């Protein structure tokens, strides 16, 4: 569903993404780990078509993002660290407006409320202005938008940053539900525990390079933490 082939992007001679090769299949939750500046956000931006690669290819559902920017966006939903919604509108109004902009203006009120319910937004909150929402509630509206768009892939940039443990757990449950529906998920995160808990695979990124990739059934949190710290210190990690 999502594939990077020798994907490369530099800024002022510094590699943000360096010959990245990565494939994420439908139903996978791939957690991309790394410090600030590792290239995680640039990778997401390349899949979204927000920036052009210097070389290599990012594909969505087999389509080159650079060559088919509008078509590939139809298959994607994006949840950044801070979900951008219209604060004066209600959660329901945001969902209706943003899904209509994406070409899905045929939903009934019942349909829209159903998407919010699937995203676990409390029913009473749907009619309240988004300005009253917590970060976790705004993210749930983001998930509802992904459901309404019928997105085949979900891109997330630090989605659990600033969430309390309960909200983080709820968010992980929502991701599992999307995975079970066949959605491919790419999540950039600093949260090693959440990566182990929800991810099917994890990748460690450093200086734009994907330096390691493992399935989460191979790992426990202390193992991933030790491996991550070794890579960040530049130590040689046995294969």
Question: What's the helix and strand layout?
Answer:
Blueprint: E1 2-11, E2 14-24, E3 29-33, H1 40-48, E4 55-60, E5 63-64, H2 69-73, E6 76-79, H3 91-101, H4 109-118, H5 135-149, E7 153-157, H6 165-180, E8 184-189, H7 192-198, E9 201-206, E10 209-215, H8 221-232
Describe, in plain words, how this protein is organized in 3D.
The chain is α/β, with parallel strands linked by helices and 239 residues long. The protein has a domain at 1-69 and 192-239: Rossmann fold, CATH 3.40.50.300. Helices cover 36% and strands 26% of the residues. The chain has eight helices and ten strands. The chain has helices spanning 40-48, 69-73, 91-101, 109-118, 135-149, 165-180, 192-198, 221-232; strands spanning 2-11, 14-24, 29-33, 55-60, 63-64, 76-79, 153-157, 184-189, 201-206, 209-215. The strands form two sheets. A six-stranded mixed sheet has the order 6-7-8-3-9-10, sandwiched between helices. Strands 2-1-4-5 form a four-stranded antiparallel sheet. Helix 3 packs parallel to helix 5 (135-149) and helix 4 crosses helix 5. It is globular and about 55 Å long. The model has no long low-confidence stretch (mean pLDDT 93).
